[in-house]
Amino acid sequence: GRRCFAAHQGRRAERRPPRLQGLLDAVTERQQVLLGKRAAEKLDAKVISVVAVSLSKSAREGDSAQLLRYGRAFYRPINALDKSRAVVAIPVQYQDFSAKVYPRRDFAFAARNGERVTVMLDAPKEIEGPRSAGSIVGQAIVMRDGKRLTSVPVALGEAVPAPPTSAVMLAALGRVLPFVLLLVLVALIATFFMRRGNNRAHRPEFVG
After folding, report:
1. Which of 103, 127, 144, 207 is an S-S bond match for 81, by CB 3.0 to 4.6 Å?
2. Is 80 helix (H, G, I), strand (E, B) or coil?
């Protein structure tokens, strides 16, 4: 949804009763002054003020603005995702740096006071190079009170080079080395018991 501090208007409003039209005029004028058209289009709460019809137009405008401010106080703007702001930096496999990932689009909305807003990242724990800048590596999920609002793809801000060959070999050796050491240990234990058995077999016996 979108947040909108607006009143209905248009050609059909011309046929409405004068008192009702006065209310709509006051709300429409004041909401544009308070928020601006672009801000009203981007967010997802609706606040409409209704004031007494017996007041003058200037009085209605003042009361309407005051009511709109009161309604806005129940909400706070949340800029959950910004294309220019990295969501997180993910470690690069076999290399000593992390790659920043950015959302592919902005996402902003209005959260009611007390609502918990979180951003979760569905992406690998490590980035495997080589990857070009702009490559999609996962998605950012925006949650409000545990409910999913939207998901936005996240991409690499910069290219990730291929890892050095030496780093790959060392990593492979690190995975294999524990098994090699275990085999060597088993072989040593087996050799020890075999020699002990052979010594017992060749021990001379004395007959008294």
Report:
1. 103
2. strand
β-partners of residue 107 are: 81
Q: Which of 175, 181, 177 is nearest to 94 (CA)?
A: 175
Check if the beta carbon of residue 30 is closer than 8 Å to that of residue 68: yes
User: What does the CA dihedral 78, 84, 88, 92 come to, rounded to 10 degrees?
Assistant: 170
Q: Are 91 and 125 in contact (CB under 8 A)?
A: yes
Contact in structure between 57 and 22 (CB atoms under 8 Å): yes
Q: What is the pLDDT of residues 89-113, one digit of tens each?
A: 999 999 999 999 999 999 998 888 9
Query: Which helix (DSSP H) or strand (DSSP E) does residue 109 occupy?
Result: strand 107-112
| Closest by Cα among 2, 69, 74, 3 to 30 | 69
| Whether residue 178 has pLDDT greater than 90 | no
Terminal-residue alpha carbon distance, the chain? 104
Q: CA 208 to CA 194: how far, in whole Å?
A: 30
